Amino acid sequence: MSRAVCRVGAGFVASRPQFRPYVAAYEVRAYVVVLSRLSLVEPDPELTPGLTPDPGDDYLVAFARAAGAHFVISSDPHLTELKQARPPVLTPRAFLPGLECLRIGAYIKHRHK
Predict the structure, then answer these.
(1) What angle do CA 22, 24, 30 make, to 5 degrees?
(2) In angstroms, what CA-CA distances link 52 with 13, 47, 66, 84?
(3) SS (H, E, C) the chain
(4) Of the residues 15, 41, 44, 50, which has the fewest C-beta atoms closer than 10 A?
(5) Dihedral, CA atoms, 95, 78, 63, 13, nearest 10 degrees?
(6) Closest of 64, 26, 69, 32 to residue 45, by C-alpha
(7) What tens digit of pLDDT does each residue of 66-97 get?
(8) What is the pLDDT of residue 15?
């Protein structure tokens, strides 16, 4: 699930200086393209105040719940430190091994066409 703001936000966050040693600008652009292609676009849900300690993050949890997301990817401590988060919050580091498996699987599938 996704919405335009989330996809653009993902590209913005990934392009921050602290991520430059780990990811090149072209990889960030490719990541946003992949997110756009694999995402389901959902309407904005009603906001429920108090889902997170930061009112600015409540929309992420509300959106993930309304869309039936399996998890939220974030390095924001307001989200990663939630106790019994629903859906669970994974840091990018915890999520990347699964993403790498998808990338390898897509590469193998493409090579055997």
Answers:
(1) 115
(2) 20, 12, 16, 12
(3) CECHHHHHHHHHHHCCHHHCCCCCHHHHHHHHHHHHHHCCECCCCCCCCCCCCCHHHHHHHHHHHHHCCCCEECCCHHHHCCCCCCCCEECHHHHHHHHHHHHHHHHHHHHCC
(4) 50
(5) -60
(6) 64
(7) 888 888 888 899 999 998 889 999 988 888 87
(8) 64
User: Which one-letter amino acid corresponds to residue 1?
Assistant: M
Buried b (16+ CB within 10 A) or exposed e, 66-89: ebebeebbbebebbbebeebeeeb
Tokens of 13: 């966050």
pTM exceeds cut of 0.70: no
Residue with token string 């039936």: 68
Residue showing tokens 């719940």 = 65
Name the one residue in this structure whose structure tokens are 């590209």.
Answer: 11
* The pair of three-digit structure tokens given for residue 1, joined into one six-digit string: 């699930």
